[in-house]
Amino acid sequence: MGTIAEKIISQHAGRPVSAGDIAIVPVDGVMATDATAPLAIRAFEAMGGRRLWDPERVSLIIDHASPAPNERIGNLHKLMRDFHERMGGHFYDVGEGICHQLMVEDGRVQPTDLFVGADSHTPTYGALNAFAVGVGSTDLAAVWLTGKIWLKVPQTIKIELHGRIPPGITSKDLILFLVGQMGIAGATYQAIEYTGPALRHLSLASRMTIANMSAEMGAKTGFVDATGLALPYEFTAVFPDPDATYSQVYRFDVSELQPQIALPHSPDNIRPIAEVVGQSVHQAFIGSCTNARLEDLQMAARILKGQRIHPRTRLIIGAASKRVFNDALRDGTAQILSEAGAAFITSGCGPCVGTHQGIPGDGEVIISSTNRNFRGRMGNPRSLVYLASPAVVAASALCGEITDPATLLAGEEWELL
Amino acid sequence: MSVLRGVAHVYGDNIDTDRIIPGKYTKTLEMDHLAAHVLEDLDPEFSQRVQPGDILVAGDNFGCGSSREQAPLALKAAGVSVVVAAYFARIFYRNAINIGLPVVEIGPHAIQPGDQLEVDLTAGVVRDLTDGRPYQTNKMPQVMVDILQAGGLVNYLQEHGDYT
């Protein structure tokens, strides 16, 4: 009968719903960041909000401009801390990490949940089969007040991925390929179900990278088939019914997939790496909610171990969370990267969203493991941002130009993490 | 408020939120600050040229990208009375309604810069008074109509206390 989206929304609505229906549903968890919470606090107060409907389900995270780069933002952070003091809830201050990583690490979102985040990459939690949607500040404030949100039940696009992802090719290459195929508006107003044998061996981190960039196709949310998913707790996965109705079904064989690059100035401007190899690079960034987890840093470390990055390229790294950074310290990954010349920054969103910690100069070329390369995204409309996997970013930092990591690790097969 | 008239400022497809208001300017609660930088990387003179009541017109997928509510807020603070597009990205669409900025979807259109437009929100019609063409707007879910009629989600919840 139902797609994953229809099943989760029906369960929350307390009645069967299908694509196109409007449902007012209870929310299991909600989060906002320093980019969205200040406006939400103002809206909540204007609505007459006196207390959060359920503080245990509310998280606030300082990650978008963290630590505060100026007094204006310092005061917005203070506003959030004061709100938390009065209202309760969970608070993640400077350096704890990136909102989406924290929600998953701390179990604030779990399979079958209906989660609302005031950030467009909230669909990341589809990696663990939550129905997770991004909203703006006023919608978020309304959840704080009522514990509910209204939703139009989305249609669903099914993307079947066959074959086996080749060694050295990452889930980032896969999702960039799909964004290129579907286009930046290819899934607008819809949910996506990613399924098929190519996904079964993927880690939670790799699945999060895929679900995360559902946003770059305009999707409301995206679910990665839970077959093979491992979580540190018992859970019930959601699968679509065999007779579920899809708006579109796509099938791809990924056995020949090569590293993929998004060229300026749109995430769907995708080319195989062969077409851009040799493009010189001034700054390389490994970070963001898309690609800054331990496996991403380890991948970079395998490429950079015992080497030194190119003298005319700087490499900036921001781990997805403090926990990820501590893990990378403990296993030696951070030391390898630091000795190779990487500059570690506070865990957060700054360079990706152009607030601070690495704004490029005019005409500079950036290769980045992030999710968007719209003009001006990284803070300078006269810079050129290329998106790639952490492996490609590391290889490019090493050589000072866009480089296929396979050419550096010839003969040495490295398993997909 | 149900009939709005103004001059069209016309842009293309896939205008993302970074071009509506760059992320570096969004960390503020000052609406004047947002208005000063609206559409800065797309049309640097827009913020000087726009007059209260003007109408922003775009193609497909207007407002794609981030969830920043500062995007519709910046347009509203700059004086834009309504945004007309072929269709919108979903978070922008919700955000605009929630802050009381009307947005209407009309599919493919031939509206030119400088055209005089009339947007009848109740009847669901956009008329290009310069070339005489009418466009039907896509129907909005009733809950959105109610929120827009209240002047936004803050007013709606002040009035109702909950979703009704």
SSE blueprint and pairings:
The complex is a heterodimer of chains A (417) and B (164).
Chain A: H1 4-13, E1 22-26, E2 29-33, H2 37-46, E3 58-61, H3 71-87, E4 90-92, H4 99-105, E5 114-118, E6 131-134, H5 137-146, E7 148-152, E8 156-162, H6 171-182, E9 191-195, H7 204-212, E10 221-224, E11 248-253, E12 260-262, E13 270-272, E14 283-286, H8 294-304, E15 314-317, H9 322-330, H10 333-339, E16 342-344, H11 350-353, E17 365-368, E18 384-387, H12 390-399
Parallel strand pairs in A: 2-3, 2-5, 3-4, 5-6, 8-9, 8-11, 9-10, 14-15, 14-17, 15-16, 17-18
Antiparallel strand pairs in A: 1-7, 12-13
Helix pairs in contact in A: 2-5, 6-7, 8-10, 8-12
Chain B: E1 3-10, H1 17-20, H2 31-36, H3 46-49, E2 55-58, H4 70-77, E3 82-85, H5 90-98, E4 103-105, E5 116-120, E6 125-128, E7 134-136, H6 142-150, H7 153-160
Parallel strand pairs in B: 1-2, 2-3, 3-4
Antiparallel strand pairs in B: 1-5, 5-6, 6-7
Helix pairs in contact in B: 6-7
